[in-house]
Amino acid sequence: MKYDCIIVGAGSAGCVLANRLSEDPNRRVLLLEAGPSDWHPFIHMPAGIAKLVGKKGINWNYTTEPEAQLGGRRLWWPRGRVLGGSSSINAMCYVRGVAGDYDGWAHASGDERWAWRNVLPVFKRSENNVRGASEWHGVGGALSVSDLLYHNELSQAFIDAAVAGGHARNDDFNAGEQAGFGYYQVTQKNGARASAAQAFLKPARARANLTVLTRAATERVLLSGARAIGVDYRHRGRLTRAEGGEVILCGGAINSPQLLMLSGIGPADHLRALGIAVAHDLAGVGGNLQDHLDVCTLQHSTQPITYDKLNDAAVAWQYLTKRKGPGTSNVAEAGGFARSRFARDANCDVQFHFVPAMLDDHGRHRLPGHGYTVHACFLRPRSRGTIRLRSADPSAPARIQANYLSDAEGFDLKMMIEATKLSREIFAQAPFDAYRGSEIFPGAEAKTDAELEAFVRNKAETIYHPVGTCRMGTDNGAVVDSELRVRGIEALRVVDASVMPSLLGGNTNAPTIMIAERAADLIRSA
Description:
FAD/NAD(P)-binding domain; 21% strand; globular; seven-stranded mixed sheet
């Protein structure tokens, strides 16, 4: 069957595009998702995020190649492999970044449509914020943005401790001033997760012109000369072909460049080495990989009030019957942004996520007792990595080389040490006096910069924000232009976090949804 649009990947961007493009009843849209439906109840109960860690059927479960600056460790990169993509398994924090991030995109792309003054209306149009319409927020959009219905008392202690340590209090990180500490707004509706699948795809599923296939893994983009004409995908064990007017890749920072390279679009030498015929030599595909490296400071709690040993049955019952209690928590309830002493401009350079539980190795390593954790990441890392193919086999996971802490000046490492020091300073303030037990990580013995460096190299992990591997721009290294069209190939676009020229100062889900909203406008007006 022929379609007007074939969307590959039903993550945050793919769900938005499926909704917006199928609003035209004359446009036939196919949405392909490699993973299953988002039926699992832990997806929809926000606190179920703690239980999703081990659910391999809805997670790509990627690991990086050995990271030279992190002791040769292979870091775990969870990415959503389910309707909604990573918006179905993330912590739901709604953060846009700052104006300078988008003005930088406009400069890199040569297109003022990506400048802050032009993307803010797109954010607002997409949003249905419980706080109402304002200069910064919108109502009536598809994406529900809410205040948390439940907070652990330790989350308030964290905010109060940050303020006691000299930081500002901030009730809205998306209202012009990012600096300060407070509660995150979340993508939830009535206490349930509002993933992109629930917010955008579910309302569109009944449209006769939209076809959604799950467990359909796309293996390559079909080309006729320099034009995309469709895709081959494997569904129920059978290789199937779909042809269409435009192919739109929404696989994210790993899968989109992987699929381009499998289709012969990418660095020619790399493709030839794997026996892949070069259809278009595009050197930037899979380059420019950026991610927020994160370091966790953990403290024992003297009071058994954390989320470490909840009665799961009682939490689930309260959630199901009353939509109240800790089941509605996103776990990372509070956080903030700060300018370190090394900040190069007026923008914040460190972000914090506080968790009223002990979180080690993404929660996969359970520690005894009760405790609390603060994540801290350097927002604008200078290190760059790559995505490369492991083989010509579409089922083989890509090679992820993040190259953390590899910048020549060593600034990324200096900032991770500084982020750890800032975390400790907050935990040392008086509001934690009633709760503070012994420090777990880095541990009391870690005092010097050299000892903190060893801690960072041994324990730092991703905080799940990979971007940039199909970046938009005007130079020869760019993969897509400012309208997200793959350079040198007609009827082929990339619409996801991979097109970001640079990593922004915050979480990446809301910006990815905005990118897809903007792309829908571009496609409909073409």
